[in-house]
Amino acid sequence: MLHAGLVSSSYVTVDDTGARHSHNLYYATHIGGPNFTVFRTTKSKSRLNFLSLLRGGYQDYVPNDAAFDYLKERRADAAITAGLRALEPQRFCNQVPFMAHLADKGIDIFDRQEIGTLAEAGLWGAIRHHGLVGNIVIVSDDAGQFRVGNHALCWVHAERLLQKLMPATAKEERLLTMARDLVWRFYKALNAYKQNPSPHSAPAFRRRFDRIFTLHTGYEALDKLLERLHRRKNELLKVLEHPDIPLHTNASENDLRTFVTKRKISGGTMSEDGRVARDVMLGLMKTCQKLGLSFYHFLGDRLGIGTIGNPVPPLPAIVLARA
C-alpha cells in the first residue's frame, strides 16, 4: 500500500503520536495521501526512522547522487563525503554491509551524530533509487524528522505559534491581534488561489508574504516569531508551485484520531503480530474510506464471505488507478 501511495501521489501529509507497545513507549507515524493511509508503529520518531518508512519494504542503502546531494544539504563533512564517492554506483543489501563499508573508509561507526547523517543519506539514496517519493510534497507540522525532500509547512501549526504568544500589555495584545488577522486573511487568499491557480499571481503572493512577515511592530517576541516564519517562506508558499497540496495537516490529525481512540479504549499492544495487525487494519480502514469503499465489504471479500460475483480489486491497484 505504501509503495503504491508513494509512487502515485503528488503529496503526503505526515504526523505521529505516542503508542504503547509491550509496556514501552513507541511512536505511531501516519503517512497519508489523497487515496491512501498507512500507519507504522516503531520505537523511534527520528528522521532516520521516517526515511526508513519512506523506503517502503526495501532494506538496502544506496550511496548515489541523491545521497550525496542529501549530505551536501545537511552540510556533512566535505572530506568524508569525497572519500565515500565511488566511480561505480554502489548498493548495499542492508545495514550490515553498509556499515562495514563506512568502517572500511575510516569512519567511526560509533559516532552517532556522524553515522546518523550518513545512514540518512544512504536511505534517501535508496528511496530515490527505487523511484519512491520523487517530487512528492511532504506536508508536516514542522517536526524535525519530517523535514526531508520537497517539504511544505502546515499553516495552521505556523499560526498556532502566534497564538501561543503571551502579550503583557494592551498594546502588545492589539499588535498580536493585527498580525494574526493579517496571517488568516493571507491564508484565505491562498485557499482561493488553490481553487483557481494562476502563475501570474504568484509573485504578488510572495510580495504580500514579505510585507506581513517582515513587519517591525515593536513587540519583540512577535517580531522574532515573524522573522522566524519568514525564513520558512519557501515551505509556507509551496502551494504556489503545487496548488493541489493542502495548506494544513488536518487529514493526518483526523486519521490519527482513530488510532488515539483505539489506544484509549484498548491500551497498547503486547505482541509484534498484534502491533502489525493494528497498524494494518486501521490503515486499510482509512484507505477504504478515502477510496469510497465499504471496509466491511472489503474484509468480506478477502475472507470469502458474501461477495460472490462482486470482488474488490487489490487496494494498491485502485490507489494507482486513481492517480
On the 0 to 100 scale, the average pLDDT is 93
Oligomer: single chain
**Tally of helical runs:** 15
Just give the CATH class of the largest domain. Alpha Beta
| Domain count | 3
CATH topology of the largest domain: Nucleotidyltransferase, domain 5
Strand content: 5-15%
> Which strand order spans the largest sheet, edge to edge or round the barrel?
3-2-1-4-5
Overall SS class: alpha/beta
Give the N-to-C terminal Cα separation. 13 Å
Which residue ranges are poorly predicted, with pLDDT under 50 across at least 5 consecutive positions?
none
Record field, number of beta strands: 5
Gross geometry: globular
Largest sheet: 5 strands, mixed
Give the C-alpha Rg: 22 Å
Q: Please write the string of helix (H) and strand (E) elements.
A: HEEEHHHHHEEHHHHHHHHH
Helix share of residues? 40-55%
CATH architecture of the largest domain: 2-Layer Sandwich
Reconstruct the topology from this structure.
Blueprint: H1 2-8, E1 11-21, E2 24-32, E3 37-42, H2 47-54, H3 65-73, H4 78-84, H5 95-104, H6 112-129, E4 137-140, E5 150-153, H7 155-163, H8 170-195, H9 202-213, H10 220-230, H11 233-236, H12 250-266, H13 272-291, H14 295-303, H15 315-322
Parallel strand pairs: 1-4, 4-5
Antiparallel strand pairs: 1-2, 2-3
Helix pairs in contact: 1-15, 2-6, 3-6, 7-8, 8-9, 9-10
Protein name: Transposase IS66 central domain-containing protein
Pfam families: DDE_Tnp_IS66
Organism: Rhizobium vallis
